[in-house]
Amino acid sequence: LCCCEYVDRRGERNHLAACCCDCEDLDEGCERWLTCKSLPPGALERITATVADRLRVPWFSGAVKVNVSLVPPLVLLPVFLHVAALHFLLGLVILTSLPVLVLWYYYLTHRRKERTLFFLSLGLFSLGYMYYLFLQEVVPRGHVGYTQVVAVTCGLILMLVALSRAKKDPGYLPISASNEKSSHQGLPNKSVKESSNGLHSITMLGAASSRAVNGEAKGNAMMSAKEPGGVKKDWCTKCQLVRPARAGHCRLCGRCVRRLDHHCVWINNCVGEQNHQAFILTLCCFMLTAVYGIILTLHTICREQTPFVALFYCPGAYSDYSSALLFTCVWYSAIVTAGMGYVLIIQLLNISYNVTEREARLALRDNAGRRLLGGLVIDTGQYNRGFLCNWSHFWSLGSSPPQRSAEDIV
User: Fold this and answer.
1) Which residues belong to any copy of the Palmitoyltransferase DHHC domain (predicted)?
2) Count: domains in the chain
3) How many whole angstroms separate alpha carbon 31 and alpha carbon 40?
4) Is residue 249 part of a domain?
5) Residue 199 forms beta bridges with which residues?
6) Which has fewest Cβ within 10 Å: 35, 227, 255, 333?
7) Quick one: 154 and 293 in the same domain?
8) Angle between helix 205-212 and 177-185 (nearest 10)
9) Domain carrying residue 135
10) Within 13 Å, how many C-alpha atoms sit on residue 101's CB side?
């Protein structure tokens, strides 16, 4: 392949020069739009799939596909912020609508069970763009010292390092070769009835295991035995394996994760046993760096006000376009920081009570937990051993590789 060629989703060789040609669905859609006719079922999905497949950039070994979800933050965020800096009312409307649009897109992808790089792209580009404006607009005014710039830079680097660790394996449970082979063959599994939470009853475990291993239902029925701590294991119908206590299946990743907390769209990865500490460290570094950067920027554009007062009342903020842009970015950063701060508080409270986000949701659904601190935390009471013991347990997560049980070895 040359730098402008690629193999499309149909397995055919194609060229970037022909990216606007040979699209029957698009031609039919335009014709129906001109004649005021409705599109046939599935036409819009086929057009979107074709456009996404042809959105590529030239590369040495062939044109590389660009993820469509990466594009909107890179284009729309600078445009929205610069438009919001033109007038106070424009800033109020845009800064109010941005969180609504992000939440709408989150619920849209969450309902469709889709993985997207939109939120990760939005977060990383927001950090980079805010840091660029900090160096380009705030530092040249002479009110920020060299050590303060170094502090912001080090905080940003530490956050990115922690983020790279949080993006790694959260503790996926290994899938046996027989299960992988059966999943690739697409064999249906209809002999076991699925419950509301995606788990089969323990009494039907032998029937599902017999087909996956060697047909001995009685021997595999013993896989529902309790762990040494007295906690029952679960059978995952999707991964076809017995998972240990506190493990859960992520419907977005399609894998079971040890001590699954939740799937975080901002890092496009699950938060589990192996990366929960790095996730908390990422949030802490982000909060400290963002708050410090906001304070330095407010001190620069509103020197006569304290940072908290300047956030709501800064008379000279719209005296020039540069100050208006900085003030708009401060409010944008404050909104994002407030949202991440709420997530961090919930995480710290959950750790203090040794409960995961997944366990809290299940407890709410089954009315099996106590609401504490105004409903901010749900104490299931199952793993709570006290504040110090809970935090000691959290810092020991992932310190030693999990031991494989006899059932996993078999």
Assistant:
1) 232-360
2) 3
3) 12
4) yes
5) 236
6) 35
7) yes
8) 90
9) 70-168+274-353
10) 14
Point out the residues that are catalytic. 264
Task: Report whether 121 contacts 266 (CB < 8 A).
Answer: no
Cα-based distances in Å from 199 to 24, 254, 256: 43, 14, 12
Both structure tokens of 157 = 């680097």
- Whether the CB-CB separation of 247 and 265 falls below 8 Å is answered with no
Residues with Cβ within 8 Å of 337's Cβ and at least 6 positions away in sequence, in order, are 286, 287, 290, 291, 294
Residues 341-395: tens digit of each pLDDT: 999 999 999 999 999 999 999 888 888 888 888 888 888 888 889 999 999 999 9
pLDDT at residue 34 in the model: 81
Helices and strands counted in the chain (H then E): 15, 12
pTM for this entry: 0.77
> Is there a single domain that holds both residue 94 and residue 161?
yes
Please report whether residue 33 resides in a domain: yes
Contact 199, 237 (CB under 8 A): yes
- Report the distance separating Cα 303 and Cα 316, nearest Å: 10
Q: Are residues 162 and 80 in the same domain?
A: yes
Alpha-helical regions (H) of 305-381: 307-312, 321-352, 357-366
* Gap between the Cα atoms of 103 and 91, Å rounded: 19
Residue 282 is assigned to a structural domain of this protein = yes
Question: Is 210 within 8 Å of 220 (Cβ atoms)?
Answer: yes
